[in-house]
Each structure stands twice: as C-alpha cells, then as structure tokens.
Amino acid sequence: MGEFELIERYFKRPVTRNALGIGDDCALLSPAPGMQLAVSCDMLVEGNHFLSTVDPCKLGHKALAVNLSDLAACGARPLAFTLALAMPVADEAWLAPFSRGLFALADEHRCELVGGDTTRGPLNICITVFGEVPQGQALLRSGARAGEDIYVSGTLGDARLALEVFRGTLSVPAEVFEAARSRMEQPTPRVALGQALLGIASSAIDVSDGLLGDLGHILQQSQVGARVDTDIAAGLMGAPAGSLAADLRLEYVLAGGDDYELLFTAPPARRDAVKAAALAAGTPVTRIGQIEAEPGLRLMSGAGRLIDRRFASFDHFA
Ligand code: ADP
Ligand code: MG
Predict the structure, then answer these.
(1) Which of 106, 177, 193, 300 is the most buried (most CB within 10 A)?
(2) CATH number of the domain encompassing residue 153
(3) Domain, as residue range, for 222
(4) Whose C-alpha lies nearest to ligand 1, atom 10?
(5) Gap from CA of 61 to ligand 1 centroid (Å)
(6) What global pTM score does this model have?
C-alpha cells in the first residue's frame, strides 16, 4: 500500500462543513461571519505520550481529544483538523482501528479531517485543530481577578493513577484500575462546557500537566495569586477513597497530569450562571478555591490550615 492509497483508504472522507478537504494543496475553511479562528496543535510521541501497547482505536481518540480540549479551554466550537502522521510501516492492523477511534470522536464533535501529511518514521501523531469563537470572546488565561472563584470540571488524578499502575509503582483493585485506565486512554474533552462558559468565565485553561501547574499559568498571566482547598480537591478523584494512600491521592489530583478537565475562574456573582452552564453541558464542576491579589499559590485544608508541600507539574525538559 502506497502513501496515497493509505490516505485514500483510511483518512479521506467527504467534507460537509468546509469548502475543501483532503486532496488538494490546501484545505479551505470558512469560519462564520463575526467568528475568530481558534487554532491549536498537539503532538503525541510513542513512549513519551503513550505506551506502545495502547489500543490504536483509543490512541486515535486521544490524539484528537487532547486537541479538542484546547479548543474547549478557549470556548471555541470545533470546525476541522489536520493530521500529520509518521509511522515505521503502513500497518493496516494499526491504521484501521486508529482511524476508527479518531473519526468516532471527530463525528461526535462535527470536526472534519481536512488535510495532513503522511511519512515514514518513528510513530508520531500531530494534530492541528481549528475552531471558531465569537470575535473577542475567547476564554483566555489572562482574565482572572482577585476575589473570583476557581472551578474545575469532572474528576482529576485518575489518569496518573493508571499510569503508575502501568509503571508498576502502584497496585489497586482491578475495577479501580480499569476505570482509571479509560480516563488515561480516552479522556473526554469538555467542549460543550467551554462554549457554555463564554461570557461567564473570566479565564480558563485545560488541565494537561497537573492542576497546580496549569493554575500557575492562569495566575502568572493574570498577575494574581490564589488559595486552593485541598480537602475539596482530594475529593475530585474518581477512584474510591481507600483505594490509595491519602498523600498519593492529593499528589495525583493536584499534579497528576493528563486530566483534560477545564480549570476556570468566574466572579462570585456568576455562581448561578456557572451552575447553569455545567448543567447545560452535562459536566459537573466543583468550586475549589479563590483568586487573591497576593501573588503565589496557597494550599489550605478545609479547616483553614496552610499545607506546606511542593508538587511538581509535568515538564518534558525538566
Ligand atoms: P503535499 O504534496 O502538498 O505535501 P501530500 O502529497 O502530502 O501533499 O498529501 C496529499 C493530500 O492528502 C493533501 O491534501 C494532504 O492534506 C492530504 N493528507 C496527507 N496525509 C494525510 C493524513 N494523514 N490525513 C489526512 N490528510 C492527509
Ligand atoms: Mg505532504
């Protein structure tokens, strides 16, 4: 199977929302009038972002999910994506399930594959997504103000739990592992929530490197500080209490990584609006702390005790 046959067989489908898809030198996108194009790119490298043993169907899902998560964090509606793929051999037993997992999530979000590049090399998947958001309304990292609430969607820490089980540093009951593993291998991008928060949230980011590290980006770009309630945060893990030690639980929730939840801020006057947005999107959100004028990040137990512990977030070059 040659390069073009491969593209034809596994990646070419008629586009319906865009002017032109796969097969020409460029794809042509048509964002609606009054909309800004939101663009993001994420690369997945074998051994680094995923285990070589992962089910290719789940990998197809995840490669797009992590990109859709960035659109969600801006409140953008997905439009299209491109796929740059390097692989050692044209293995149909890998390509078929990979494209199935990829298109299943793409269809769910009406996000069309409009182009890409295919080459021989170590397995590497790079997707660029394009979305649209009303002019000037995208959720940014720089909009948090002192006195605002901090929220996070869904659950945190389970992907890291699964990774540690794979690494052999942790052992948990089989059903706990399976639930965590699906969070790691098939994260749910919070696309509907991001759009529902337009005009309500003052800042947002998606949690990919760990809650505290990603909150740090909001704090830095908004030039504010924050306090986070660690008791509330510790309750955000999907894995049942008792399935792992309390200190590990807190570490995975605060600095686990690979969560793809939305972390955002909103004024206290908008609490009802945040609740309504979460309900409309079908995604639970939890208020975990508050933005403060004083720079820095303070971890407090529910009883108001300051927690003096450091958590390192994920850094490829650290
Ligand atoms: P070019 O010569 O411009 O680099 P290619 O020969 O690489 O174009 O690709 C031919 C067409 O197939 C282009 O429209 C390109 O966008 C598309 N394409 C290539 N690889 C992929 C892929 N993995 N997924 C989707 N479209 C692809
Ligand atoms: Mg090319």
Answers:
(1) 193
(2) 3.90.650.10
(3) 149-300
(4) 23
(5) 20
(6) 0.94
In a domain, 36, yes or no: yes
Kindly give the distance from the C-alpha atom of residue 4 to the centroid of ligand 1, in angstroms, as a whole number.
8
Question: Closest ligand 1 atom, CA of 10?
Answer: 24
* Cβ-based neighbours of 21, under 8 Å, separated by 6 or more: 12, 13, 14, 15, 27, 112, 113, 114, 115
**144: CA distance to ligand 1 center in Å?**
41
- Take residue 51 and report the two structure tokens written for it: 């285990």
The residue nearest atom 7 of ligand 1, judged by CA position, is 117
Q: Which of 118, 126, 127 to mutate to test the pocket of ligand 1 (most atoms within 8 A of CB)?
A: 118
**69 and 194 both lie in a single domain:** no
User: What's the structural domain count of the chain?
Assistant: 2
Q: Which residue has the tokens 């998560």?
A: 69
**Whose alpha carbon is nearest atom 24 of ligand 1?**
116
Given a contact cutoff of 8 angstroms between Cβ atoms, the answer to whether 164 and 280 are in contact is: no
- Would you give per-residue pLDDT tens digits along the chain (318 residues)? 888 999 999 999 999 888 899 989 999 998 899 999 999 999 999 988 888 889 999 999 999 999 999 999 999 999 999 999 999 999 999 999 999 999 999 999 999 999 999 999 999 999 999 999 999 999 999 999 999 999 999 999 999 999 999 999 999 999 999 999 999 999 999 999 999 999 999 999 999 999 999 999 999 999 999 999 999 999 999 999 889 999 999 999 999 999 999 999 999 999 999 999 999 999 999 999 999 999 999 999 877 788 877 777 666 666
- For residue 94, the CA-to-ligand 2 centroid distance in Å is 21
Q: Are residues 122 and 183 in the same domain?
A: no
Q: Is 93 exposed, middle or buried (0-12, 13-18, 19+ CB in 10 A)?
A: exposed
